[in-house]
Amino acid sequence: MEIQIKPELRMGGLLLGLGALITIICILLEVNAGWASLVVEMKRTDLEAGKFLYENWDEMNSIWNWALYGNVFLALSSMILFKVNQKIGWFPLSLFWAVYFLGSLILIISFALSLGSYPHAFKVLDDELYLFEALRGAPLFLFNLGALFQTSVFIIYFFEGFSKKGRVPQWIAGITLLLMVGSFVAVILGAVSFAVFAITCFVPPLVLGLFYMKETRKTK
Predict the structure, then answer these.
(1) pLDDT at 68 over 90
(2) Which residue pairs from 82-91 have beta carbons closer than 8 angstroms and sit at least 24 positions apart in sequence?
(3) Dihedral pair phi/psi, residue 88, rounded to 5°
(4) Could you report the per-residue pLDDT of 171-201, keeping only the tens digit for each?
(5) In this structure, how many other beta carbons lie within 10 angstroms of the beta carbon of residue 126?
(6) Whether this model's pTM surpasses 0.70
(7) Contacts of 153 (CB under 8 A, 6+ apart)
(8) Furthest CA-CA distance within the chain
């Protein structure tokens, strides 16, 4: 038997894991910058958000640029993994990767809009707050929509973890599930902020990427 490496899985896994890792790091950098918190929810009015961003724009601009690049890697990975010929029940695996690609693309647009438009709004923040409110509204809506679409990777991950021929060991998938459920419950109870749950949501693509990178198939 000769071992044939699946190049699309190896490359797709590399980009998927890299994109997820960059995103996790960006969330932690947002916490370090004071934009987010792991303990309490950071509730700000548009004026408060605008002033914080204006005063810390150099740092936030860098973080959000990297977040944009992270989603570029996620989008590229889903384009490559779209070629994987496999099914989850009645549905082709490519359907879920297509949804994930769309979510990543929407997030790229969201970050691009923020990075491109916010600096102009800062100049008139006190006099024309409505301008920043309008400019902030679109990226926020797109961000939430893109994040929702990206949850399609959970279906892929837990299929790979709990199916008989899955590429992710069941015990790792089980720990991941407990981690996600536990962090979500902790958010509801007010023990941690939503940022903690957001970080755990990128554990599945990170782990999936690692196992895709190790993927081999034996052929005659």
Answers:
(1) yes
(2) 83/8, 84/8, 84/9, 84/12, 88/155, 88/156, 88/159
(3) -115, 100
(4) 999 999 999 999 999 999 999 999 999 999 9
(5) 10
(6) yes
(7) 96, 100, 204, 205, 208
(8) 72
